[in-house]
Design brief:
Number of strands of chain A: 0
Oligomer: heterodimer
Largest sheet of chain A: none
Strand order of the largest sheet of chain B: 1-2
Distance between the termini of chain B: 36 Å
């Protein structure tokens, strides 16, 4: 039960993008078209879930037993960067079609603060391994959801008459504000 | 020194014409997340300025020693090191501020503004220009955060830098302003306003 709550909380109620402001750069940058948004979301979800598990293992098996939590920032970022590299090589070898659709997004994920932030929140809240796994999965699903919603709205917005000063980033931020307001409606749903 | 004016130019460029937040749209995550009060914005801005100046200096010093293929991991480890320093410093001397900022201090590591300065400027320039460039970027980041934080604080809780200026009897705080939605909307409007003035200046110049 707890696991389902953590998943839903990370995916909807405390959406990483709209409540914690993590992963804003891809959220603004890759949300112009629906299909690229879906691919980016899937790639991020995949890396995020893996990162949640691996950073948990490193944090609980190495850093905490040897009293090294001050090395957390440095280790986590190295782990995430090398993980992305590994995933990229793996996908390239195993599934060239998947690589063609995700390939260019993978390097971008290294600087996606959502993954690093997720790993930090995971260790801060002291989740167990299974909880961490679902937290990572939920975070990824939430990121994908926000990205896809935004891309859908922006595709429609192509035909709208936006004031010149608000075109581009300002308009996207305003829409994100509306989305965040809408997502606040879920706040009463769960309390985790 | 003949290149003094250009040093100052490098500094002022980060303040306005190439401001990391309002123009380049870098470092948006911390700009949105911790701008719920003026004090938080200032602390975050100064911490980021410290990291960007130190990281850019070190990157500039070792720029000839780092092979091209491994430069990104090298830079990120340098940045992570300085962020840990800033994090521990804040925790030791300003525990309340550190508690407020929470995980957003370690998140400075993935602030693309710092990586951007290291990659696009410090890795190709000498120490002194790199320092000025990083310092300008950091201060540019800080002023946007402080202004944004102050606006949200005034509208959201009726105070500025924790001093109450609008009491609850005369002004009902707009709670939404200190919530995530307020962050997106106020930053969107702020960038829109800056664009508006820029466009008007351009039209006049024509």
């Amino acid at each position: 039960m707890n696991i389902i709550l953590i998943f839903l909380s990370a995916a909807i109620v405390n959406n990483l993008v709209l409540a914690y402001f993590l992963g804003i750069c891809p959220f603004l940058g890759v949300s112009k078209r629906l299909d690229t948004a879906v691919n980016m979301g899937l790639a991020t979800t995949f890396v995020m879930t893996l990162a949640a598990v691996i950073t948990w293992l490193i944090n609980n098996l190495i850093l905490i037993p040897y009293d090294l939590p001050f090395l957390m920032n440095v280790t986590f970022i190295i782990v995430i960067a090398s993980l992305v590299q590994l995933v990229e090589m793996f996908i390239k070898k195993m599934s060239p079609p998947l690589y063609r659709s995700l390939g260019m997004f993978l390097p971008l994920i290294v600087t996606n603060c959502a993954i690093f932030g997720l790993a930090l929140f995971e260790s801060l809240r002291g989740y167990s391994l299974l909880e961490g796994l679902f937290f990572g999965l939920g975070g990824g699903v939430g990121f994908t959801l926000a990205l896809v919603l935004m891309a859908g709205i922006r595709e429609e917005l192509e035909f709208a008459d936006v004031p010149r000063a608000l075109q581009g980033a300002p308009m996207t931020l305003l829409i994100a504000g509306m989305l965040a307001l809408a997502f606040m409606g879920f706040a009463g749903l769960l309390s985790v | 020194m003949a290149n003094n004016p250009s040093l100052i130019g490098r500094f002022t460029r980060g303040l306005w014409s190439e401001n990391p937040v309002t123009v380049l749209l870098l470092g948006m995550c911390p700009a949105l997340a911790v701008s719920n009060s003026g004090v938080n914005g200032l602390a975050m801005g100064l911490a980021s300025t410290f990291v960007v100046v130190c990281a850019s200096s070190l990157v500039s010093i070792i720029r000839r020693l780092v092979p091209g293929e491994v430069r990104i991991p090298t830079y990120i480890v340098i940045i992570a090191g300085f962020v840990t320093l800033a994090d521990l410093f804040l925790k030791a001397y300003f525990p309340e501020v550190a508690k407020q900022l929470g995980p957003y201090v370690p998140l400075i590591v993935v602030n693309c503004m710092i990586m951007g300065r290291a990659e696009f400027f410090a890795s190709k320039h000498k120490l002194l220009p790199s320092i000025f460039d990083a310092f300008g970027t950091g201060i540019g980041f800080t002023w946007v955060l402080v202004i944004l934080g102050s606006i949200r604080e005034i509208l959201g809780s009726g105070s500025i830098f924790n001093y109450v200026i609008l009491s609850e009897e005369v002004f009902v705080p707009w709670v939404v302003m200190i919530l995530p939605a307020g962050a997106f909307i106020s930053l969107g409007l702020m960038i829109g306003l800056i664009n508006y003035f820029k466009l008007r200046a351009e039209d006049k110049a024509l």
